[in-house]
Amino acid sequence: KNQVEQSPQSLIILEGKNCTLQCNYTVSPFSNLRWYKQDTGRGPVSLTIMTFSENTKSNGRYTATLDADTKQSSLHITASQLSDSASYICVVSAYGNKLVFGAGTILRVKS
Amino acid sequence: NAGVTQTPKFQVLKTGQSMTLQCAQDMNHEYMSWYRQDPGMGLRLIHYSVGAGITDQGEVPNGYNVSRSTTEDFPLRLLSAAPSQTSVYFCASRRGPLEGNTIYFGEGSWLTVV
Fold first, then answer.
1. B40-49: long-range pairs with CB below 8 Å, 24+
2. Per-residue pLDDT tens for A4-23?
3. Does the distance separating the beta carbons of B103 and A34 come in below 8 Å?
4. Do residues B34 and B55 make contact, with C-beta atoms less than 8 angstroms apart?
5. Quick one: pLDDT band at residue B2, thresholds 50, 70, 90?
6. By C-alpha distance, which of A55, A34, A32, A109 is closest to A77?
7. Which residue of B has its CA nearest to A39?
8. Is the pLDDT of residue B101 over 90?
């Protein structure tokens, strides 16, 4: 069964600290993996897209990694800001236009 | 550049009522989709369209209808609202197949069925 599991479910960190969010998947055949940021009350916004051959991709303070062998991805946030408080969603695409969404990790950055 | 626009933002319905959630995109995207987001779960696909005049069912289509008469618009109709349809609904669009194409989401429509 195609599944995307994210951990932790929620996380609280202090402003300025780094954090790493995890995504494990069983989607097959794998096409690409995306990370989205969803602010409270808003729609998801794309952060990164990675294909099978890419193992790192950055977008400002956000760095995503992908290990296609172990079917794991992580999203690392550097020097967190209050505006990073959001839900972060991992989405895996299978060939054949199928998307599988994780339930998301809720991040709260405190001052 | 508006992107994907959804209306209404909030709606309360009584059980058995019908309504339409509107979705419009101004990016000339072929692919459009409707998702629902429930607490503790990933987004689930309701219906999708790969072009004007073409629609298909997603993972959770029961109780919903769609049509795609133009490239820009993709309305979602609730035929007879049920409390189980209380959810947040997102419309999304992209240019073409999933490989390499960014998916753009609307701001969401919060629906409560009482």
1. B40/A103, B41/A103, B42/A4, B42/A89, B42/A100, B42/A101, B42/A102, B42/A103, B42/A104, B43/A44, B43/A89, B43/A101, B43/B90, B44/A101, B45/A99, B46/B76, B46/B89, B47/B76, B49/B74
2. 999 999 999 999 999 999 99
3. yes
4. no
5. confident
6. A109
7. B107
8. no
- Could you tell me which residues come within 8 angstroms of residue B111 by beta carbon, excluding any fewer than 6 positions away? B11, B12, B13, B21, B78, B81, B85, B86, B87, B88, B89
Q: Could you report the per-residue pLDDT of B53-70, keeping only the tens digit for each?
A: 999 999 999 999 999 999
Cβ under 8 Å to B: A residues 50-109:
51, 89, 93, 95, 97, 99-104
Interchain pair A89, B98: CB under 8 A: no
Among the listed residues A91, A66, A78, the one whose alpha carbon sits nearest the alpha carbon of residue A4: A91
pLDDT surpassing 90 at residue A35: yes
Shortest CA gap B17–chain A (Å): 25
Nearest to B100 by CA among A38, A88, A93: A93
**Interchain CB contact of A5 with B (< 8 Å):** no
Among B45, B102, B106, the residue with its CB nearest the CB of A43 is: B106
Cβ of A99 within 8 Å of Cβ of B98? The answer is: yes
Q: Does B2 touch chain A (CB under 8 A)?
A: no
Place of tokens 């599991």: A5
